[in-house]
Amino acid sequence: MTLDSPADLLAYDREHVWHPYTSMTDPAPVRMVASAAGTRLRLADGTELVDGMSSWWAAVHGYAVPQLDAALRDQLGDMAHVMFGGLTHAPAVRLAQRLVEVTPDGLEHVFLADSGSVSVEVALKMVLQHQRGTGHPERTRMLTVRGGYHGDTFGCMGVCDPVGGMHSMFASVLPQHVFADRPPAPGGDVETWAAGVRALAERHDDLAGIVVEPLLQGAGGMHVYDAACLRVLREVADEHGLVLVFDEIATGFGRTGTFFAAEAAGVTPDVLCVGKALTGGYLTMAAVVCTGEVARGLSASESGVLMHGPTYMGNPLACAVALASLDLLESSDWSANVSRVGAGLARGLEPLRTAPGVADVRTIGAVGVVQLDHPVDTVAASDAAIAEGVWVRPFRDLVYVMPPYVTTDADVELICRGVAAAVAVA
Fold first, then answer.
1. Domains in the chain, please, with CATH?
2. Are 175 and 128 a contacting pair, CB within 8 Å?
């Protein structure tokens, strides 16, 4: 069977291809993308859509970016991949150098993973092995917060919200970690929340570390919280000998307005996870950056080595395009672009605050969120946005956008109209 036409491809897709969080027996509709360039997706039927999602928050420069395309072509002239066990190569070493330079001071050792979820798994192993190496093998649980999301693999699911999160059906087979209340929104009651966190840390002497998404919780509900909460977590970690992990897979590389969300609180974690925008949305890659103290403690554990090693660790193509993406962020004035896009989202979405069914409107950096008082009809909402020429992918009770940083002011206005259309039918 030859699949030539878009109709044939879509038919086969419906019968055989699983999509994220979608039933195989009753799949949701999908659309065939023929090409992508700039901030637009071109569908097989010729429809052009402004991308409001940055392909799940990763394509911060948009698509078909000449500098990133060139980095991949140049790297192909040398090698596409080589194993990282016992070997190394210039793109990996240079990327590690850049990550040490751009992450908060004190983070100096880099593990190159192959996806965001894997980077969190690696971070959790780092925490556990560090505690073992420093004489605390009984410390096996993590302290985290309600509303968090850290990925879909088993270790990650264990530190996602066990009740309101997407993985509640697995709660009985996951490690039982310790959950504080969701942090308060900016300007909220940080002191009462902090007292609860401190009380949990006092009561549980088996805690090994703390893991959170700083400032913005992603797939757990797009909740924005007060930066002062991060300082509280740093203090609690220091007081109790815990390893502080920040999951910046969604927030890193400028998305919330600072290059890393940790900077908004002036806090340096012991371990930092990055991904998504690391390669500008071109290839799957993530990284875990940790302090020398964590590395030394981990190395003193009985294995003597970090017990992880992905097949595609340090992939040269991904490293090369990540370096090019970091160069492009710096040369394109990412901060001004994020501020500009964020201001446009704030202006365009604020009128929806009084729309029927809307519970809240919030923005941070280049992120815009409309929260409804009911679950979104994802298909109807997506169709309505598409009719306006915009691609969004709502979930739960949220219609939200994270556009590429290079999105023009006119396209930001169009995205806001697409969100309004989606809200009207959601």
1. 31-64+333-425 (3.90.1150.10), 69-331 (3.40.640.10)
2. no
**How many Cβ atoms are within 10 Å of 186's Cβ, its own excluded?**
15
Contact call for residues 226 and 185 (beta carbons, < 8 A):
yes
3-class DSSP assignment, residue 217: strand
- For residue 185, CA distances in Å to 124, 224, 341 come to 27, 6, 22
Contact (CB, 8 A) for 419 and 52: yes
Average model confidence (pLDDT) across the chain? 96
More confident residue, 358 or 28: 358
The alpha carbon of residue 263 and the mean position of all alpha carbons in its chain are separated, in whole angstroms, by 17
User: Distance of CA 213 to CAs 110, 150, 272, 282, Å?
Assistant: 19, 8, 10, 23
pLDDT at 215 over 90: yes
Query: Binding residue per annotation — 88?
Result: no
- The percentage of residues in the chain with a pLDDT greater than 70, rounded to a whole number, is 100
Question: Residues 374-408: pLDDT tens digits?
Answer: 999 999 999 999 999 999 999 999 999 999 999 99
d(CA 168, CA 158): 10
d(CA 297, CA 310): 22
Q: In what order do the strands lie in the sheet with 207-212?
A: 107-113, 286-291, 271-274, 243-247, 207-212, 141-145, 178-180
Active-site residues: which are they? 21, 149, 247, 276
357 known member of a binding site: no
CB proximity list for 11: less than 8 A, separation 6 or greater: none
What are the tens digits of pLDDT across the range 43-76? 999 999 999 999 999 999 999 999 999 999 999 9
Segment holding 326, helix H or strand E? helix 316-331
> Cα–Cα distance between 289 and 275 in angstroms, integer?
11
Is there a binding annotation on residue 331? no
Q: What is the pLDDT of residues 275-301, one digit of tens each?
A: 999 999 999 999 999 999 999 999 999
CA 254 to each of CA 14, 45, 102: distance values in angstroms, whole numbers, following the listed order: 36, 34, 11
